[in-house]
Amino acid sequence: MNALPLAFPTALAMQSAPACVHCGAALAPGQPRFCCHGCEGAFALIQGLGLDAFYRQRDASAGEHRPAVEPPASSFALRARPGRGGTHSLDLMVSGLTCGACVWLLEQAMAARPEVLRARANLSTRRLSVTWRGDAALADTLAAFPARLGFRVAPWSPACLKAEEDSEGRALLGALGIAVFGAMNVMGLSVAVWVGSDMAEGTRALMHWLAALVALPTVLIAGLPFYRSAWSALRAGRTNMDLAISLGVLATTAMSLSEALRNGPYTWFDGATALLALLLAGRVLDRAARRRARQACAELLALQAGEITCIGPDGTLRTAPPEATVPGDRVLVAPGDRIRLDGVLEQGEALLDTAASTGESLPRRFQAGQALPAAAINLGDAFVQRVTARLADGSLAAMARLLEGAEQARGRYVAIADRAASLYVPVVHAVAAATFLGWWLGGGVSWQAALVPAVAALIVTCPCGLAIAVPAVQVVSVGALFRRGVLVTSPTALERLAACDHVVLDKTGTLTLGRPAWVPDPRIPPNILRDAAGLATSSRHKLAQALAEACPGAPPALTGVEETPGQGLRRGAARLGSAAFCGLDDAGDGMALYYRPADDTGATCFRFTDGLRPDALEAVQALGRLGLSVELLSGDAAPAVHRAAGLAGITEWRSGISPAGKAARIRALGHAGRKVLMVGDGINDAPALALAHASASPAGATDLAQAAADLVLRREALMALPAAIRTARAAQRAARQNIAFSLAYNVVAVPAAVLGLVTPLAAALVMASSSIAVILNALRTNALRIGRKAAS
Amino acid sequence: MTALSILLPLALGLGLLALIGFGWSLRGGQYEDLEGAAQRILFEDLSRKEPKP
Q1: Which of A609, A636, A654 delimits the end of a domain?
Q2: Residues of B in contact with A124 (CB under 8 A)
Q3: Catalytic residue from among A270, A353, A418, A506
Q4: pTM of the model
Q5: Is A89 on the interface with B (CB under 8 A)?
Q6: Contacting residues for A628 by C-beta, under 8 A, at least 6 apart
Q7: Each residue of A397-447: pLDDT tens digit?
Q8: Residue in chain B lying closest to A84 (CA)
Q9: How far apart are CA A167 and CA A292, in angstroms?
Q10: Residue B13 falls within a domain, yes or no?
């Protein structure tokens, strides 16, 4: 729920108000240079290392580099890998690494430490690799260092590794290299034949055979990605775009070989290899765009991943990964920790924030022996949980399996390019076969000569434009959305998003921020607020953190603070906490803190609410203008849902819905013919997300929800949603135009090819020009949208 | 023809050399962080230590 640093600086505020020297966030009145003590410390550190050039050259959003109050919680020492000669190395995921200046600062600052031998940061994957001389225990100190500069660090998790490890992408890039090499060299030889009309027969044969020598291995190796995909489609009884490509390329190569054997006037090796090179370039770009999104998702998830504290039989504590626990283990859940395993409360009482698992916005109390919902956050005192199921058998894993099933169902969605291909391929192949038979039987030429116009028809129609038509649009749109903070994780997400006509929103954490925010009260004197906030900085309680955030300039109370977890803080005679803790009685909803100053001049009440996202109303209205109806579906109680719906301008709302109920509602809407876009963040939303036609989850959503969603909104704003829908619709329009355009091309090109009028030179020109036209059209949609954005 | 017998192998050989170079750089991980590589040239390296094993 609170995975990202929080700051909502508007463009206006950044221009007029003074900004923090370190993180760039707007300063509150009375703050001379820094927004918080973390920033002051980071600035001093950077100055001390002589690295202040960082501030002149970095490119990051305001507040991005504000150091977290809490140091990273994970234990890194266990993850250090021993190397040769008493060295160790460690991989870290560093969030907030946004530009070259960040990479430079991080590498230089790490390298300035005497024990560090090597520090290398990867800007694309956000990975920092550090090697140092000394023991593994130094890992914790070294990992805490970037945090002091304002970067958030997390262990380099398997999810990060999976997102980075891209053997398929590397294979594509290798194939592209081979195809480009082949196409260039074959083209050189072909041009010699095209211009050398007075060439001797023997020289021409030499040229043909040299071209074959280069082209045959190229076609066999570089075409493999297409052949594989075509083969798997065939086995599943489908046709796809790759089948058309494979057949076109292989037929052209075979025909060229036959032409080389009988020393015909032209071979078509250049067409086959150039086609492969162009198509592979499209694939590589398409993949790179989505790889970036995948990595950004892995980064969000790594920040949430954590370890648990097990209590041994002798009472000793040790940290362990959640996978390593077995039923019967006892786990200590500290205040502020997320419950990661299924289990029961061993003794006492627990106060949990269950928003992620049920959608309730108010904390709930649990008694000893009660089962605790996994993914809930401990708001109260530390407690001991007895594990009842291993991670792999637990409720979270069951949910993940459920999601996989739903994902597979959605995997059957046929992309528009493949839909076009399934109509197009049989027609083209029928035309080619008819041409061959017509020339051979009807035209009375040899079968080798009849092959030439038939394959020429195949290659001019060979869906170069068609195969690039959709990837080109995808690359442009996915890139544009990435820059706006929308991560597109599924290849067909934009197509499905464009078709949506109904939006189902979750409340807690989606429409609202999912964490309490102080309701400003002008009656509270500023000095009281400052004192209370200063006291609150020492607690990890949600409300205390919200209070500390409300007054970032408050000097923290460093010493003498005593915390009674779940109740309040005490420093001398001053108290901050629940009503009972401050000796008052209040039958509130648990969303208030009381402060009694040391001189006992009367208590102050700070009220909190799970506020709407600042742009919720605007976003709902924008969705309405786009023609989508909006519905609110929440697991929370009716009054809270009603209030949120009213504030956001949503008329249709349902409350108290269970996860299964949400999924059922989505299914019912689907049966009624609606194309539903589900937006949710909790574990309880995950089945609904996977069932919906398209799905999105906001920043800070639980890992399961993010895994189920097609889009992840990386910034704390809902306005990205209507923007994404607009982009998806523009992309869909452009893709349709491109497909129509390549079909129109063929209306001219096919008759010419069938009549035997097309030479390899003409085919090369047609191929290149149609691809360029299609790519330009894709770029045009992006330029138009950006132009409109600038105008508005 | 004599010119061709020199020029053709030369042309193909140069192309092949470039392909081998590409394969080498691909395997060496030079395409892993294109964004970072583009940014890195803009910054002065202050490192006073040599990255020795």
Answers
A1: A609
A2: 32-36
A3: A506
A4: 0.74
A5: no
A6: A500, A501, A502, A503, A677, A725
A7: 777 777 776 666 655 666 777 777 778 778 888 888 999 999 998 888 888
A8: B53
A9: 15
A10: yes
